[in-house]
Specification:
CATH class of chain B: Mainly Alpha
CATH superfamily of the largest domain in chain A: P-loop containing nucleotide triphosphate hydrolases
Strand content of chain A: 35-45%
Number of helices of chain B: 11
Shape of chain B: globular
Largest sheet of chain B: none
Radius of gyration of chain A: 23 Å
CATH superfamily of chain B: MetI-like
Oligomer: heterodimer
Structural class of chain A: alpha+beta
Number of strands of chain B: 0
CATH topology of the largest domain in chain A: Rossmann fold
Radius of gyration of chain B: 20 Å
Largest sheet of chain A: 6 strands, mixed
Largest interface: A-B, 23 and 21 residues
Mean pLDDT of chain B: 87
Strand order of the largest sheet of chain A: 7-8-9-3-10-11
Number of helices of chain A: 8
Strand content of chain B: under 5%
CATH architecture of chain B: Orthogonal Bundle
CATH architecture of the largest domain in chain A: 3-Layer(aba) Sandwich
Low-confidence stretches of chain A: none
Helix content of chain A: 10-25%
């Protein structure tokens, strides 16, 4: 699998970004971290909008930047699409001309995505003849995404594309973004400080804190790490599961989903059987049972688990994090007293009881 | 009152001078305004001040230095004379050069302002869409700065139309070569030909009023809103 390799140092008066990372060129990779941590600078360096004094960026076999050899490929030569925080549409051009701006500037042979296809996927038909300032914020951002995609980029860079939108508009665009990834197979680097967006969209995560990369990996692995700085407490993610809808139980308002041969119940989702669905478990919603489980219990979701590791919580000295293996990593947050009473230790077999919810826009 | 015999020579000459000067000003002023809008150089303030000088300097001061520079022994006029055999002072070309300096701030300042309000963001977007820097300037920055260009052309033209002191110093008063409208008016007044002076003055007044009105009207209707 080809990958994007990047190392750079950017030094400003008040800010220092130091990054060294390998990013798979497949699916959505989220760059995640609090505001002001260097996420946007990271993305601008990738695009060539910012030039770091020391740095190497390699895209597959192509060198984009190597300061030791004085190589710096300008923005216009990099096969990227860029979606900015604000739509940045050209006000003097119609939506159609905005979409065509990049499309017309790439050689015919390199056009992998057709104008009609993008217009259809992003539902832009009714907007084509309008001017940008007559569109809502959400519509403008959809046009901006379409405009970037129409350059048939080998990599799409998105800098908090939803942050300027309200909740309703966000939920209007998220499904489009999910479709993009599934239908168009364009790898995406997606910068955001919104955990919910990332849980819905990302396959890989790069966590940045104060200008330094603190974790990288698949979304399942990154959020199951115990040493992740307290970015998201108290809503620590226990697990993100890729499941398939297996059955509907409308009389109970439940949907049964499956992942690696195990079954879970989640609040009902109006989706056909066989649909893939991402499901989240919060660490504080997991409780642990030692010994033979009761034959009957009100808990719907119970899985056999093995304790892997026990770690401290950063925000609360009376709480501990327990990393479990339930066929995939799962984090549980329990009280120190429970840990003491259950005498938990690595390797121990337990049962995990939890509540799960679907991640959908 | 009998209708005076009108000499249209100075009117035609003035229009030619203003027209040529505006073209030169756009060629010189656009890159200069662009540089001022986007540079981080510490010389920016200095260059800005130099460009603005003609606004505050008496035209005679500017005219005096230009006369020295453009004259047969001057910094510019000397080499020019060796090349072409003729001096620059008291010629039409000399007037164009002088007017370019004199009207430079009236072209650079509106352009500088509108390039700044366009800002870097749309340009960055254009670059990521495969536009070269020049392409982005032509297809994104220029249309977005259209009001700035319109103001620059009109102010540059109108200001050159009305110049007096600099022209008198550098060009003198040679009919058909350097005798522009404002000098013709001065001449008529000096020789107590008030009717002719009135005629040219009214023409200049009406013309200036007309183009400014047209420009402000067009400006309101331009489709581009850069906020």
């Amino acid at each position: 699998m080809s990958a994007l390799t990047a190392q750079f140092d950017v030094q400003y008066a008040t800010f220092h970004l130091h990054a060294a990372v390998d990013i798979p060129l497949q699916g959505v990779t989220a760059i995640f971290g609090p505001s002001g941590c260097g996420k946007t600078t990271f993305l601008r360096c990738m695009a060539g909008l910012e030039r770091s004094s020391r740095g190497v960026i390699r895209f597959g076999d192509v060198v984009w930047q190597d300061e030791a050899r004085r190589i710096f490929l300008p923005v216009v030569k990099r096969p990227i699409g860029y979606v900015f925080q604000e739509p940045r549409l050209f006000p003097h051009l119609s939506v159609r001309a905005n979409l065509a701006y990049g499309f017309r500037r790439i050689p015919r042979k390199q056009r992998r995505l057709s104008f009609e296809r993008i217009v259809e996927i992003l539902d832009l038909h009714n907007l084509l003849n309008r001017r940008p300032h007559h569109l809502s914020g959400g519509e403008q951002q959809r046009v901006a995404i379409g405009r970037a995609l129409l350059t048939s980029p080998a990599l799409l860079l998105m800098d908090e594309p939803l942050s300027s939108l309200d909740m309703t508009r966000k939920n209007e665009i998220l499904p489009f973004l999910q479709r993009l990834n599934q239908d168009l197979h364009v790898p995406v680097l997606y910068v955001s400080h919104d955990l919910n967006e990332i849980l819905q969209l990302a396959d890989h995560v790069v966590v940045i804190k104060e200008g330094t990369i603190v974790a990288t990996g698949t979304i399942q692995d990154v959020f199951a790490r115990l040493d992740l700085p307290g970015l998201v407490e108290p809503n620590v993610v226990g697990a993100v599961l890729e499941t398939t809808v297996a059955a509907q139980e409308p009389q109970f308002g439940l949907t049964r989903v499956e992942f690696s041969g195990r079954s879970l119940f989640i609040p009902q989702q109006a989706l056909p059987i066989g649909t893939s669905l991402r499901v989240q478990i919060l660490a504080r919603d997991v409780s642990l049972v030692v010994g033979v489980p009761a034959a009957q219990s009100s808990v719907l979701n119970a899985l056999e688990a093995r304790v892997i590791e026990i770690g401290e919580s950063r925000s609360d000295p009376y709480t501990v994090k327990v990393k479990l293996d339930v066929g995939c990593p799962l984090l549980a947050m329990i009280t120190r007293k429970s840990l003491h009473q259950l005498k938990l230790h690595p390797g121990q077999k337990v049962h995990a009881h939890f509540k799960a919810v679907a991640l959908r826009g | 009152m009998s209708f005076p015999e009108m000499d249209w020579g100075p009117v035609w000459l003035t229009m030619q001078l203003a027209g040529v000067t505006v073209v030169v000003l756009l060629l010189v002023g656009t890159p200069l305004a662009w540089w001022l809008a986007f540079t981080t150089s510490r010389f920016r303030t200095l260059v800005e001040a130099v460009v603005a000088l003609p606004i505050v300097l008496p035209p005679t001061v500017l005219g005096f230095y230009l006369l020295v520079a453009l004259g047969p022994h001057g910094l510019v006029g000397g080499p020019w004379k060796q090349l072409t055999g003729a001096p620059l002072s008291f010629t039409f070309t000399g007037l164009v050069i002088a007017s370019t300096f004199y009207s430079l701030p009236f072209v650079v300042q509106p352009l500088h302002g509108s390039f700044e309000s366009v800002g870097k963001k749309p340009l960055e977007a254009a670059w990521t869409l495969g536009a070269s820097r020049f392409d982005a300037f032509l297809t994104v920055a220029s249309p977005m700065a259209i009001r700035g260009f319109l103001s620059a052309v009109v102010l540059g033209f109108a200001h050159t139309l009305g110049e007096f002191g600099v022209v008198l110093m550098v060009g003198g008063n040679i009919p058909g070569v350097t005798k522009v409208l404002s000098i013709a008016i001065y001449d008529h007044v000096e020789s107590l030909e008030y009717t002719q002076a009135h005629f040219l003055s009214v023409f200049l007044l009406a013309f200036s009023f007309l183009i400014l009105t047209i420009v402000y009207a067009i400006n309101r209707r331009l489709p581009v809103h850069v906020s």
